[in-house]
Amino acid sequence: MTPHTPDAGQCPVMHGANTDKATANAAQAWWPKALNLDILHQHDTKTNPMDADFNYREEVKKLDVPGLKKDLTALMTDSQDWWPADWGHYGGLMIRMAWHSAGSYRIADGRGGAGTGNQRFAPLNSWPDNVNLDKARRLLWPIKKKYGNRLSWADLIVLAGTVAYESMGLKTFGFAFGREDIWHPEQDIHWGAEKEWLGSSRYDSDSRDSLENPLAAVQMGLIYVNPEGVNGQSDPLKTAMDVRLTFKRMAMNDEETVALTAGGHTVGKAHGNGSAQNLGPVPEAADVAEQGMGWINHSTRAVGRDTVSSGLEGAWTTHPTQWDNGYFDMLLNHEWELTRSPAGASQWKAINIQEVDMPVDVEDPSIRVQPMMTDADMAMKMDPAYRKISERFYKDPEYFSQVFARAWFKLTHRDLGPKTRYIGPEVPQEDLIWQDPVPMGNASYDVDAVTADILASGLSVSDRVATAWDSARTFRHSDKRGGANGARIRLSPQKDWAGNEPERLAKVLAVLEGIASKTGASVADVIVLAGNLGVAQAVQAAGFDITVPFKPGRGDATAEMTDAESFAVLEPVHDGFRNWVGSANLGSPEELLLDRAQLMGLTAQQMTALIGGMRVLGTNHGGSQHGVFTDRVGVLSNDFFVALTEMAYQWKPTGRNAYDICERKSGKVKWTASRVDLVFGSNSVLRAYAEVYAQDDNREKFARDFVAAWTQVMNADRF
Questions:
Q1: Which of 89, 100, 334, 574 is catalytic?
Q2: Which is more confident, 21 or 228?
Q3: Has 184 been annotated as catalytic?
Q4: Which of these, 52, 257, 258, 638, is most buried using a 10 Å CB contact count?
């Protein structure tokens, strides 16, 4: 058979090979059950257009913040013909943009949120709930262009919403810069399993409390709840259940929830004065001529009073460009009935409202129009707990403004990390419990004296390494929470977590806390130093001269600085690095390993090195022997990889997550293993890494790579 040669004039390019969904990952399409490592390869440096030495956190310190805020304030009332501002003020649009950027955050895994500027990319840029927010970002482009590299999109999006509130009369709580942009979609975040927009199969039962973790939104493509009611069916009391759970999964209590709902709807309006059927494709599906914008309506006027976005139509207050107490006045002092917007969406309208209480038309101030409420708004009136809070806010507008300002700050800064990462002249001085404060640690103690005491303590290498790992592994790169700094492993709830082996942990901590008390070092430092010394001993036993770096200065948090309920979501219920799965219903152990590795900010290579090292150091949870493919436990050897790649063995399943490693000739069981162990031999990519480390000439390389990855984990929360 002769190879195919394109006819003259026929394009030889494989059309769609890199962009068509079905062929974007050909191997995954052919073998969908294969372990997909893409989540560990996100945001490769090759996607970043900035120079290698570019440091945004240093550049943003040079920013002219007063000038920037002045420009943003002017933009709010600089109405553009191509996308005119409602009532001549873009405040409502900018607030919705910032809100929906921050509102994708969820506490269970810390993913989502405003910290990366991910709203610029799919899928978020094309979510149904984000209709026309592409227009808000285009309106901001002249400002981004002007301030350039000193201002990230992530910071600008949130600041635009904050300045919008200030321009309408709210005294905000503060603002911090420091959000660094990503340059590629976060395609492997689990936003839900539904295959259609606004699908809702994320509940385990009919109970609204059974929403699948870690999700917070109730339907695919929404930020929070369906404004028309549960699955589009109006029932404010049921909607209240959705609101409460959704906001709880964003770390908000009832008072913060009412404040945010009311504050978000005090200004701006919803848009549904037309037919949604006339809207064109979303940004990611639009024609090239749309230049990255979506939902373009080529059939009708489609701007101003005729804009269609959510499908609901109307403002919530009499004066939608002013920060005031009008939301509660409108909600509580009027009766409401269910109706339909011109676009057909279910919403509530006021009964017998006086014309003077109606907002004016967005284009013609001589025309008064009906206000509206969503099902979520009616929940603030009908749910007993929400009603009580609403009435208090109505009677005390100043208190409402203060609570909202703090809640808005929390909403927009929750995933920025600890206060030490905040940059700028408007950073609040107050330490907030949700920032997970840690006091400054002592860095001037005698490290050599602490080292001597640890080495003389009688604690084993595996106990020291496991304890340091358990302390540090809680760090989440997604929202910069957790980690070894603060030594919260000695406090509730962490000291009692099953994954931390409480009995073993208590014995180790008793020794390490005594050393800290004696030497003036923090417990956090002593825990990490003890782990480092364990690794150093294992390196030395392997015959290599490799330094395990240690930098003192960690602090010790107190119980008063720790929101135990908030920290509960950081509890590890699986940890492939210590070969432990706490529940059989969580998913495949190897996929759980990838999830944890990604949250810890590890690459596939780092994950591989850490697994191999943790096994030969004997750090398995509960002393399990799975994956301990060595007769020299405590020596940082490459034995794990040598055994895994050796063809003298056979691998036989003995349980759901258990395997025997048998000698081919004799059939004798040599070792046992878990799925996490064997995936480094079965997955083609991970096997390639394992083979590198199994080579005779890479034994020292493995040790160096393990030390480097270990050090990154121990220092991940040092900002």
A1: 100
A2: 228
A3: no
A4: 258
